[in-house]
Amino acid sequence: MYHQEMLEQGDLLAERRATRVERRTNQRKAALHAFYRNRRKQLRRDDDSSIGVYVDAHEPRLFYLAVALMTLSVLDAFFTTLLIHNGSEELNPVLAYLLEFNLYAFLGAKFFITGFSIVFFIWHKHHRLFNLISCYHLLVFSVAVYVLLVGYELSMVQHLTIIHH
């Protein structure tokens, strides 16, 4: 008799679990909690890394990467305008059009795109883009590319100052 009651209670609990709404199905809603309740800082299960989950607290290295990327973007904008003033061309056709149209439109678009990308990469850091690379690694890659770009622009600016002297 006791065994039968335990089985019935187990069935009842299983039925409750089966009808309960899975709270992890709406991950975007959970991610919005990041603005006012930081609880989840890392993945909880090994399986989470394959499906990509949102966390609502981030490690400091992401802040440093974000600041580095935005700083490099500002340096890129400064060197780009300096080089264009001295006869160079903007290679990005959209930004080249905006630069011809208005300097502030160019700067606004450049910083908006960079800022949006930073937020997107950090928010989706555990997600894989096209099932190939995590957004975190794309953020790191973006910083590396910007370092190379700003270094190249700096060498061009130094070359300009040598020519003008």
Order of helices and strands: HHHHHHEEH
Q: Unreliable segments (pLDDT under 50, ≥5 consecutive)?
A: none
Overall body shape:
elongated
The number of distinct β-strands equals 2
* Helical stretch tally: 7
Query: Averaging pLDDT over every residue, what do you get?
Result: 77
Radius of gyration: 25 Å
* Distance between the first and last residues' Cα: 100 Å
SS-based structural class? mainly alpha
β-strand percent reads under 5%
- Strand adjacency order, main sheet: 1-2
Largest sheet: 2 strands, antiparallel
Give a nutshell description of this structure.
The chain is mainly alpha-helical and 165 residues long. It has seven helices and two strands; from the N terminus they run ααααααββα.
